[in-house]
Fold this protein.
Amino acid sequence: MKSRLFTLSISLLLLLIAFPLISIGTTNGPALLWWLGLASLVIGGILPPLRRVFIPSQPMPEPTKVGLPEDDRVS
């Protein structure tokens, strides 16, 4: 898994695909679509917590000075 944005994007995509697959699989489609939708739902829901547990967080950047006296835009 490359970055947090990549992981969250894949998770969102899987979750968006899951519900139509489950719906089609339960109404008139083959049962395989239902199982694919369920697997997509589970994997999409579990990716963010797994990333948080298994991939170490990146260090935060150093804080910068904040305020009007340090702001370059204020003259």
In short: The chain has a mean pLDDT of 83. Residues 8 and 48 are 7 Å apart (CA to CA). Residues 4-53 form one domain.
